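Step 1: inspect the first sequence and its tokens.
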Amino acid sequence: MEVKIGVQNTSREITLESEQSPEEIEVAVSASFENSTPLRLVDHKGSIVLVPSSALAYVEIGAPRRGGVGFGMQ
């Protein structure tokens, strides 16, 4: 699943592939805002991404990624 995180005052977004479900990601984002704690997500390789909740501009949760071949992959 692709997740895009917009960070305030930066022109680039953070993009990662996660094995977490959309519901798990949504709960993590909501908890981050409610508790003023950093957003913590784990990418598909096991790396941890932490973003301060005060710096979050948006979080876009994509559809689960399907396998593809060649030019058909997106």
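Step 2: inspect the second sequence and its tokens, then contrast the two.
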Amino acid sequence: MAGRFLATALAVSVALPAAALANEASDKVVSGAIDGFIRPAYGRLVEQTAALGASMDKLCAAPSTDTLEAARKAFSKTTESWSEVEIIRFGPITEQNRLERMLFWPDRKGTGLKQVQAAVADKDETATDAARLGGKSVAMQGLGALEFVLFGTGADDLAGAGAAYRCSYGKAISGNVGKIASDVDAAWRDDKGFAGQWKTPGPDNALYRNATEAVTELLEVYVNGLELVRDVRVNGFLGKEAAADKPKQALYWRSEGTAAALGGNIAGMKALFDASQFGSLLPADSQWIALSIDFEFANAQNAASAVTGPVDAALTDAEKRGKLAYFGVVTSSLSELFGTRLAGALGLTAGFSSLDGD
């Protein structure tokens, strides 16, 4: 996998003076990542999940074409908001299976889909309570499950009175998603919790013994995030040739949110890069790396924004399919810039990809 290639490529060591890196890491980079990106991004996600919950309440109370459309729009806004912050795949989101509970993906064997379909068909009443739902299979309680409820087979029935159970189940999912977002948001805002540990590395810190380890955590957001976007998200449905495309393997294909999610992932990485001022750690003769990263982020976002409409239709459009292929090329370029160039210039070495073996 590309992760193994990156792990090899990252074994570069051209170190800056340790004291300089320590000062920059503690005073600017990690604090900038937390205060300038993670906390605001989770704040927006909390607001959006609350709006989603309110829209589900209205849909269930007064089912109609208009309230269904409003709920669907709120769902799409939520997935876009989540896509920006889901690149932070460490810390509070990893506790209590929150990451998988928020979004169970990929579901290569369709196990999760079958569980969701069974809940709808059997009208499992225990799945209509957000608290009880949170203790069930991770595949039944997150954004993937809610997408099926709102956009999958039979979803149009939500506009009438005949889908009360389905709506109640969707309402419980939205409540569960909202609680996960709120819990993670609160954890990140607690300076005595994980955020404090990341901000203050030291010999007595169980997670980060020094600033190099703390900054390496930030580097791995990009190393692992770009691999996820390219190898799991894009290459999961985009074949080497059109005949090998698998549009129904694309994330959010039912809600036509595939490209928006890819763009959201890149937008989150760009916002994190800016807020942390990661590039400012580079010596003067390596500043071109930061400029190149900015350039490629813009290219990736432009490519993703050019892919509109259903993903199956986009794949039959030569121009849009070409944009998706180009998006993959750009993410590979970004991987090289972060994993080899930036890492080498800062004397950082990232560990093996978290996606190895997937």
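Step 3: confirm your contrast with the notes below.
The chain has a mean pLDDT of 92. The chain has 14 helices and no strands.
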